[in-house]
Design brief:
274 residues; 78% helix; globular; single chain; transmembrane helix; MetI-like fold; 14 helices; mainly alpha
């Protein structure tokens, strides 16, 4: 066996093992969601059983989890639509400015991203109650945009600084304004990076639990908060929780499969010095 082939084979085996290890909780959750509780909690675990989708039906039909899915999607999409344009323009400006002030601002953004979210939950709740925005989409979207901006700005800036200065100089010689340089030169180049930033922003908003627990209510409850209501002494709740957990992953899996080509290009763009 040639050394190169041996190395590739060992790498392939290692990746398969790593993938299987990461998929184990997902597979276990799916099996739990289609088992009766007596089969799901049997010792040793039963590998041969009669599957049932009753718990999935209860979650999405009887308990109307589709309403919580709509709330999650609306809040997530709203967060991306507001956060991404603001972060993109901010990142472009910070990538073009090489001053002490820009570096201080970047450091402040990083410090804000590292700030514990639990300490911000009460101020956001008090502000939302003062403005009568509790249990509204506006409160959740505004909070998520504020929390998401530091990460999105840093991420988009990493794409903008990969653009050679010669392109900006050529555009300036052709008579382009700063806005035209941003819109006609920079944006088309970093388009793959926009997909990556949009994905991370969407995942951040879609999976948010703490602020959704504090700022939402019966009308705007999201899927993470709804799933947390199941569990405890009733073993049926564990099967319902497993069914809901599998259901909450499906939209993101479908989204990533549809946009896989753009995401790979975006990640490769950010990893190569151009």
């Amino acid at each position: 066996m040639k050394p190169r082939f041996r190395t590739q084979f060992l790498l392939f085996v290692a990746l398969c093992g790593f993938t299987a290890l990461n998929l184990t909780p997902v597979i276990w959750g799916f099996l739990t969601s289609i088992k009766q509780p007596v089969d799901a909690f049997s010792v040793p675990p039963k590998l041969i059983f009669t599957p049932t989708f009753e718990f999935h039906r209860q979650i999405w039909v009887e308990r109307e989890f589709w309403r919580f899915l709509i709330n999650s999607v609306l809040i997530s999409v709203g967060t991306v639509c507001i956060s991404l344009p603001i972060a993109t323009m901010s990142a472009y400006g910070l990538s073009r400015l090489q001053s002490t002030g820009s570096r201080v601002l970047l450091g402040a953004l990083l410090a804000l991203r590292m700030f514990p979210q639990i300490l911000l939950a009460i101020p956001f709740f008090m502000l939302g109650r003062m403005l009568d925005l509790i249990d509204t989409y506006s409160a959740m979207i505004a909070a998520l945009v504020a929390l998401n901006q530091p990460f999105t700005i840093w991420l988009m800036r990493s794409f903008f600084i990969e653009i050679p200065d010669e392109l900006y100089e050529s555009a300036s010689l052709d008579g382009c304004t700063v806005w035209q340089e941003f819109r006609m030169v920079a944006l088309p180049i970093v388009k793959p990076g926009l997909w990556v930033a949009a994905l991370f922003s969407l995942l951040f908003a879609y999976n948010e639990f703490l602020f959704a627990l504090v700022l939402t209510g019966p009308h705007t409850k999201t899927l993470p908060v709804a799933i947390a209501e199941y569990g405890g002494e009733d073993v049926n709740y564990w099967s319902l929780s497993a069914a809901a957990a599998i259901g909450i992953m499906l939209p993101i899996v479908v989204f990533m499969m549809v946009l896989q080509r753009h995401l790979v290009r975006g990640l490769a763009f950010g990893a190569v010095k151009g």
